[in-house]
Sequence to fold (528 residues):
Amino acid sequence: MKKSLVALSALFATFVSGRALATGFTDLGEDLHPRERTEVDLHGAFRVRGELLNNLDLDRGPTTSGDPIFPVPEGDPSGQNLTYADMRLRTDLSIYTLGGGVAVKTRIDVLDNVPLGSTAQGIPSASNTQAPPGYGDAFRIKRAYGEVKLPFGVLALGRQGSHWGLGMLANGGDCADCDSGDAADRIALLSPILGHILAVAYDFTAIGPLVTRADGVRRLPITPGAAVHSFTVALLRWHDPLSISRRNKADKLTFDYGAYLSHRFQSQDVPAQYLPIAGASNVNASGAAVMHRGYHATAVDTWLRFIGADVRVELEAAALFATVDQASLVPGVLYNQPVTSHQYGAALESELGAATAIFAGGFDAGFASGDPAPGFGAFPKLGAPPPKAGDLDGAQGNPPSDTKVDNFRFHPDYRIDRILFREIIGTVTDAYYLRPHARLHLVRLATGTLTLQTAMIASWAVFAASTPGGKAPLGLELDPTLSWASRDGFGVALEYAVFLPGSGFDNPALHLNARTAQLFRARFTLAF
Fold:
C-alpha cells in the first residue's frame, strides 16, 4: 500500500497539478510523507527574455480581409523588425502540516508576460520610472489547492494545474518558456488499483451570471442551467523519474500508459455575460437573456511512453466529439439545426541517446485534424465576420450554412517551432508536421553544461482551402539553440529560427510570393 501511495503522489504531480512546482515532475512521490513539524517549501524561477522578430508578415501583403498575417511596424510601411522583452517571477509555495498528511499549495506569478517598458509613468519621453501595473497584471494567482492523504488514496480540492501526457491537449504550462497553462477548479480523488492509478475528477468549469448577496461580499450564480460541468475518469500506469532512473541502471525497460474519458455539458447559456454587446450589464433583469444551448462534448485521450537507458518514445492521441443544439449567440434568433464537431489529434516524440550522452537525436511528428472552411480556426474572435478565402484565421462554423467545426487545436504551450505555429498561426491546427531534431553537449563542467540543439520542422495543411495561399505546403523551419545550464540554477538560451514559407502563404491575388522570416531570442532563467 505504501508503494502504491508513493506512485499515486507521483501521478498526482502529473494528472492534477505538478505539485505546484515550475518543473512539474520533481516530486518523486515525496509530497505527503510523515513530518515532525509544519514545513514550508518555496520553489520557482525568475525569467527574463527578449526577442527580435524579422519579417513575420512574410512580405506577402494583406489577406483577403485586408489584414496582415502578423503585426507590422506602424508608421514605416517598409519596416521589417519588431522587438519585445518581458519577465516573470514564478513562485510555488507548499505548506505541509504536522504529520505530513495534508498540504496546501499555491502558484503566484509576478509581472507575468508584462512587456518591459509598458508601464512608463507620465509622458513616455520624460518618464523616469515604471508605474506599478494593475493587480491583475502584477500578480496572477494561478493555483491554490489542498491535498489530503486518505487510507485509500489522495483527495485534491481547489484551483489546480491541469496537465496530461505530452501536454498536447491539456498543458499545465510548467516549461521555462511557457506563457499560459491550464488550471481547473477541481475536486479529484486518486486511488491505487491493481498496479494502476484510478483518477476521478469533477470540474467547476464555469458558472454565472453572478449577483451580490446581502452582505455585499459573497456572490451567487442565479442561472443554474448556465453552469458548465466537466467529469473525468482516468486510468494510468506511471513510474516517477527516480524509479525510471533505477530501472535504467538495472537495464530494465519501462512502459507507461494511460487513458482518460472526459465529458462536459451545459444546458443553458447567457451570452450577454461574455459578449461585448449592449445590455450586457443588465443580464439579470429578466429571463430574456437566458437561452437554450444544449452543449455536450466528450474527449478521449490515450498516452503511451516507452523508456530505456538510451531511448524514449512517447505518443499521445486524442479524439473530441461535440454537439451544440443551439449555436446562436443572440436570444430570439435561432438556428434550425445543431452544430457538430469531430476532431482528432496526435503527437509523437522520440529520442535516441541518454540524457547524459554527448550526442542524442530523434524524430517527432504530429497531426491535427482540419476543417475546409477558410482560415485555420486557431483563435477565432467572437462577433467577427465569417472568414473569407485567403484569410489566416476565423471561425470554422457559420450556421446555418456551415454547421461543422472539425479542426483540432494543440495547446499553445505544446510548442514544436518558433515562428510558424507559435507566432503566425498561434498553435498547431489543421496541419501535420515532421520534426527531426538533435542535441550535442559541447562542454560539460562541474559548474554546468553548454549544449547545442537543433530541429527542422516541415509542415503541411490538412485542407489547402484553410491557408492564405490556397495550397497545402506551409513551409520549412530551422530552429537552432545554444544554451548554458548551470548547476546553481542559472540558465541562458540563445535561440534562432528561420522560416522558409511554402506556397500556402503566397498571395495569388496580388501575385506576391511569401518571403523568409527570422527570429532571435535570448532567455535568462534563475531557478530556486
